[in-house]
Write a structure and sequence with these properties.
Length: 289
């Protein structure tokens, strides 16, 4: 593939130019844009064609590839290994119980603890022992962008810090609660790895008994979040925002819980990711009036 090498900043301006090959996508390499050129037009470099991965979907967590759903076939595993050369491939059949513990099988190589980098954060975890939802990337970035420095936030289901770490990096103070000792240990290590210990207070145990004082924002990253809402609602003020996760839209049940607590709120609902054939992982932003 013949390309011209240009500063990335010029990409938006050159899209329609006669020399640009419209059938191939430009891409960034070491901060420089490599723009494919049409036949006969001068180029700076001739690069090997990039192979497009068309195999089974997987998430690379650190250096371990994780597949969900049906058991991967030998061919699917081989194509994942050929694509990114992971240390291991883990098949997560599902996550069980309130602690969302993965039912995991190492189907290639070795697994175990990883250091996973995502959006400037480092997460330490073992994907065979605790869940890591990569499909929530956009939601994590959204929360990090919403958070204002100095906010007091409760993360009621902190896990290994999926929301806690990005929110702390945005300058908020986080009260992070987690009931599973394995996840809690990774949470503490992820806090240290991101140098946010001055902004995060981790506590191990049932969040219902740990919430204290009034929060500006409450993160409820658990599919059963709505049933914990009465506890959360005892710790809000007008203007507080609660992010309630659910399978399917939970607006009606949230309205009921608000009414029982004698509170009113504006609720907006958004999709986080596809969860099943006709089911979505949703998040409801509940702003207390
Ligand atoms: C869905 S997982 C991960 C949540 C994470 N916030 C996310 O969205 O990726 C939910 C976490 O909540 C924890 N958890 C469940 N019930 C809890 C409770 N009553 N108090 C505190 N943590 C709890 C589980 O152990 C698990 O780590």
């Amino acid at each position: 593939m013949r390309v011209r090498r240009l500063p990335a900043s010029v990409l938006p301006r050159i899209a329609g130019e006669a020399w640009v090959d419209p059938d191939r996508r430009a891409y960034l390499r070491d901060g420089v844009a490599c723009v494919p050129v049409r036949d006969g037009c001068p180029a700076d470099e001739d690069l090997p064609e990039r192979s497009v991965y068309r195999g089974r979907g997987y998430h690379l967590i650190g250096d371990v590839a994780v597949v969900h759903g049906d058991a991967p076939t030998k061919e699917e595993i081989e194509s994942i290994v050929a694509h990114r050369h992971p240390r291991g491939v883990v098949w997560v059949k599902g996550c069980t119980g309130a602690m969302r513990i993965p039912e995991a099988v190492v189907v290639y190589g070795s697994a175990g603890e990883v250091r996973h980098r995502e959006q400037g954060c480092t997460f330490i975890l073992d994907p065979t022992r605790v869940m890591f939802a990569q499909g929530n990337r956009v939601e994590k970035a959204r929360i990090a962008a919403l958070v204002r420095p100095g906010e007091r936030i409760a993360d009621m289901f902190a896990g290994i810090g999926y929301f806690t770490i990005p929110a702390a990096r945005s300058g908020a103070s986080i009260h992070a609660m987690e009931i599973n000792p394995v996840a809690f240990d990774y949470l503490r290590r992820s806090i240290a790895a991101n140098s946010v210990a001055d902004r995060v207070t981790p506590m191990m145990g049932d969040c219902r008994g740990l919430l204290s004082g009034v929060y500006d924002r409450i993160l409820m990253g658990h599919f059963e979040a709505a049933s914990f809402l009465p506890d959360a609602l005892a710790h809000v003020r007008p203007g507080s925002v609660i992010h309630v996760h659910s399978i399917g839209d939970a607006t009606a049940v949230i309205r009921e819980r608000l009414m029982e607590a004698g509170l009113s709120a504006t609720i907006s609902s958004r999709r986080v990711k596809k969860y099943g054939p006709h089911t979505w992982h949703m998040v409801q932003d509940v702003r207390i009036e």
